[in-house]
Design a protein that fits this description.
Elements: E1 13-14, E2 35-36, E3 40-45, E4 67-73, E5 78-83, E6 91-100, E7 103-110, E8 114-115, E9 122-123, E10 125-130, E11 135-142, E12 150-156, E13 168-170, E14 173-178, E15 200-205, E16 211-216, E17 224-233, E18 236-243, E19 247-248, E20 255-256, E21 258-263, E22 269-275, E23 283-289, E24 303-304, E25 312-315, E26 331-340, E27 347-350, E28 359-365, E29 374-378, E30 387-390, E31 397-405, E32 411-418, E33 425-427, E34 434-435, E35 441-448, E36 452-462, E37 468-476, E38 492-501, E39 508-519, E40 522-530, E41 535-540, E42 547-549, E43 555-563, E44 575-576, E45 579-582, E46 584-586, E47 590-592, E48 605-610, E49 620-624, E50 631-637, E51 639-644, E52 652-656, E53 660-669, E54 675-678, E55 696-706, E56 712-716, E57 719-723
Parallel strand pairs: 2-4, 13-15, 24-26
Antiparallel strand pairs: 1-7, 3-12, 4-11, 5-10, 5-12, 6-7, 6-11, 8-9, 14-23, 15-22, 16-21, 16-23, 17-18, 17-22, 19-20, 25-32, 26-31, 27-30, 27-32, 28-29, 28-31, 33-45, 34-41, 35-40, 35-43, 36-39, 36-41, 36-45, 36-46, 37-38, 37-40, 38-39, 41-44, 42-43, 46-48, 47-57, 48-49, 49-54, 50-53, 50-55, ...
């Protein structure tokens, strides 16, 4: 089970109690007596220390007890990880800066982020940007009066690229680098390319598209040697391709490198760049160009599949046979597609109605072609044609293989539709036939008859496949429609952002929101603003295609306009947004067993979104009215019950029978009084199996709190009951 951490950022100033160290050397007992921490691990023990009196709840929502202080001088600029994971007691952690101990500003704090081996004491971890050469204060305190003991303060600097283990993350496009301050990592592989270089730099890269990529350092002002490698770790690397000289720089004498290499989406590769000579050090750019076209002839070259019911063309006459076995019929020449799951409920893929040929179809998890994992297979479902269903999480990628039964050829189409409940999905059925401006806006009115939650959607872009794209979602705060407000910037407020990789003009690109958007019942003017990477692909309005409604009538889209410059340019109408989304029901269960008031004066209350359909794993539990900075975990049982103040808690247990502790992820933290927790339907660790159809499960949150004296205590939310289908 994963552990969720919450980094609570603040800019709070507090004053530390200063006390001299009577032992003659720093003990860490006060801020002015801070120990010096080093990069890596610094062991400590608070058994003989006291409470320095420094508390800053605005940094992290807990004022602890016995504490210890460190100073640390950053060895580089970038995002550092600071943690006490593995400590044998429950810690609270803060990283602060200031000219001295009398004036400290908190950069980041954390209560619980990593459980120790005891399973009940929770240590702390933060990620924090630091500046090379600057000195910072690190404050570690116990969560309660009994939280004292030994631990290790671990400080992990950002990767530098100086070794394989410190490889810098690279993305598609330009990745600037400079080897001036780096060294020779000692890695040389003359069998990959006939030169063992000198000063080098490492990158890691995970492609989002499968196919032949171009990797180069063209334009670098140094002579480079380039390798692309793969392996389970840095100790076992296999060179895929290497190059010494392939592109001359502008100076005409230093030669940079370029390779073409087939890569698999989702696989991590290492890119090694070294200087040809000892003097070959300096700046350059690693450029990675992803494939823009695919034939679908092999697993490594799949065609991106549209998943909104649009036809995906199959013609295996010019293709070859993969030769892979099938579990539901022999297959000759075949075509491969890459399907990104847009619907949270899965996807139906079918050749029914698309071809008269006898087809066989398979689905695999996306991965290396030599070790594919099959997830579905079908021969005959509608006559001699095929239909299969794939289920995963939003954004998961599957490989779809289509061929003729027994050999031969297939000519026709395969279709992909969001899987049910189909009433929960709505998309524009019209194909895009117009384009806007890069960075432009598109407007649409959305009407919902009951509260819904949207965690992702799809949008068409006029950009090549493989282009990074993003959008900001705005809502009209002044009216119930976008109409009349297109050129009024004051009417619009951002409510979410999304990002993805374009799958091309003819296909809807799945967009993942940074956080779910909740729409109450009503009509809303919505605007999608492109954050670069391409223009909107619209549908020209014809009247009949300017309004469309979900089967259940819960949601409908009306009208549309486009705009080249968001909120100021001339609106073009009708320009109908071309996309769609699936939505989750809200409040899908029943509250019972009212909770006692906690330290906020309110009672913690549960709700839920997602689907009650078993196997879809879209259940999300939410608990509100919690103390800021509280930490807790969910309990689950098939039985309701009532136990007052168990273990001295200030709350009541509303579950009976066998109670599972740690439903979903084990520990959740909050800084704002709310916990939003994706559950899935795997049962807690002391139960077995999964939630089943027609079962009713009851949920409750246990959380830490303080009593009326400020001492440690705990409490419970109310109960929440859900009948699964």
């Amino acid at each position: 089970m994963r552990l969720h951490s919450l980094l609570v950022f603040a800019a709070a100033t507090a004053t530390a109690a200063a006390a001299p160290n009577i032992n003659g050397g720093p003990s860490g007992d006060t801020c002015v007596d801070a120990l010096t921490a080093t990069t890596g691990g610094t062991a400590f023990d608070t058994s003989s220390l006291t409470d320095s009196g420094f508390h800053d709840a605005s940094c992290v929502g807990r004022d602890g007890f016995t504490d210890i202080w460190f100073t640390y001088t950053a060895v580089a600029s970038g995002d550092f990880t600071v943690d006490t994971c593995g400590a044998d007691f429950d810690t609270v952690l803060r990283v602060l800066e200031g000219p001295d101990c009398s004036t400290l500003t908190c950069l980041v704090g954390n209560d619980d982020a990593c459980a120790t081996s005891t399973g009940t004491n929770f240590a702390s971890s933060v990620d924090v940007p630091l500046t090379a050469g600057a000195t910072y204060f690190i404050h570690v305190e116990g969560w309660s009066s009994s939280a004292i003991g030994a631990g290790t303060l671990t400080i992990t600097p950002p990767p530098t690229g100086d070794t394989c283990a410190e490889a810098l993350p690279a993305g598609a496009g330009a990745n600037p680098f400079d080897t001036t301050t780096l060294t020779d990592s000692g890695f040389h592989d003359g069998s990959c390319v006939g030169r063992d270089g000198f000063t080098d730099i490492w990158f890691s890269y995970q492609p989002v598209l499968t196919g032949t990529h171009t990797v180069d350092t063209c334009g670098a002002d140094i002579d480079t040697v380039l390798r692309v490698l793969e392996g389970p770790d840095c100790s076992t690397l296999t060179c895929l391709v290497g190059n010494d000289d392939a592109c001359a720089t502008s100076v005409g004498t230093n030669f940079a490198s370029s390779v073409d290499v087939p890569l698999i989406a989702g696989t991590t590769y290492l890119i090694h760049i070294e200087g040809w000579s000892s003097s070959a050090i300096g700046a350059g750019t690693l450029t990675i160009t992803e494939p823009s076209t695919a034939t679908g002839d092999t697993c490594a070259d799949p065609v991106v599949m549209d998943s909104f019911g649009a036809p995906n063309f199959i013609n295996t006459a010019t293709l070859t046979a993969s030769g892979l076995p099938t579990n539901c019929g022999t297959m000759g020449k075949d075509k491969w597609f890459a399907l990104t799951q847009f619907s949270p409920f899965g996807t139906v893929v079918t050749t029914c109605g698309g071809t008269s040929n006898d087809t066989v179809m398979e689905a695999y998890e996306f991965g290396p072609c030599g070790s594919l994992v099959q997830v579905a297979c079908n021969d005959d479902s509608c006559g001699l044609q095929s239909l299969l269903r794939v289920n995963g999480q939003f954004g998961d990628v599957f490989l779809i293989r289509v061929g003729a039964f027994g050999g031969g050829e297939v000519n026709g189409n395969v279709f992909a539709f969001p899987q049910g409940p189909p009433d929960y999905c709505l998309g524009n059925p019209s194909a895009p036939n117009n384009s806007g401006s890069v960075g432009g806006a598109v407007f649409v009115d959305v009407t919902v008859t009951q509260p819904v939650q949207v965690s992702g959607y799809a949008s068409h872009f006029n950009s090549a496949a493989g282009t990074p794209v993003g959008q900001t979602v705005y809502v009209n705060t002044l009216g119930a429609t976008y109409q009349g407000f297109e050129q009024d910037p004051s009417a619009w407020a951002p409510i979410g952002t999304s990002s993805s990789i374009s799958v091309g003009f003819d296909f809807a690109t799945p967009m993942r929101l940074d956080q779910p958007i909740l729409l109450p019942a009503g009509t809303f003017g919505i605007c999608l603003v492109n954050d670069g990477g391409g223009a909107h692909a619209y549908t020209n309005g014809t009247g009949s295609n300017e309004t469309w409604t979900s089967v259940d009538g819960v949601i409908s889209f009306t009208g549309g306009a486009g705009q080249n410059t968001p909120f100021t340019g001339t609106p073009f109408s009708p320009r109908v947004w071309n996309g769609g989304f699936c939505y989750d029901q809200v409040n899908i269960g029943t509250n019972y067993c009212a909770a006692n008031a906690n330290s906020t004066g309110s009672s913690a209350s549960m709700s839920a979104t997602g689907s009650v359909v078993v196997g879809l794993d879209t259940l999300v539990l939410q608990t509100d009215n919690l103390p800021a900075g509280s930490v807790g975990y969910y309990l689950a049982s098939m039985d309701q019950g009532f136990t007052a103040n168990p273990g001295g808690s200030a709350g009541n247990l509303c579950l009976g029978g066998t109670v599972g502790r740690g439903m979903g992820d084990q520990v959740y933290s909050t800084g704002s009084g709310t916990i939003v927790a994706p559950m899935g339907l795997d049962l807690p660790f002391n139960l077995t199996g999964r939630v089943a159809v027609n079962e009713t499960w009851n949920f409750q949150l246990w959380f830490r709190d303080t009593d009326n004296t400020g001492g440690p205590s705990s409490n419970f939310s109310d109960g929440y009951s859900i009948l699964f289908q």
